[in-house]
Amino acid sequence: MGKSAHDDVLDALLEEIKDNTNLLCACSTQPTTRTEAAVTYMLATVAIDSSDFTLADGASGGRKATISAQSGITITNNGTVAHLAIVDNSKLYFVTTTSSQALVAGNLLNIPAWTITANAPA
Hints:
Layout: H1 7-20, E1 23-27, H2 34-40, E2 42-47, E3 53-57, E4 63-67, E5 70-74, E6 79-87, E7 92-103, E8 108-111, E9 114-118
Antiparallel strand pairs: 1-2, 1-6, 3-4, 4-9, 5-8, 6-7
């Protein structure tokens, strides 16, 4: 028997992130809590809101949320960025890896557009 999920079901996952998060964090290590993302491992942060997300069909099925590019983010702490995290005021919503890059406090960071994909059931 085949498996399927309506786009509304997949969008609900992505909309939860889109509608409830407010901060994108560049982190030196994979955070497992909101505090680790926004404080402990944080190298730079930028405020985000629902306008930074665009939902669309995924490239190979499913749905995706594209997070818009963020530029000119002031780096707060020295370190090597390895992860991006999306949080609200109390929860860690999403973590992904990113290209490793040494960051120096006081300089500026640019984060290109990237996606979160909700794949159709396989």
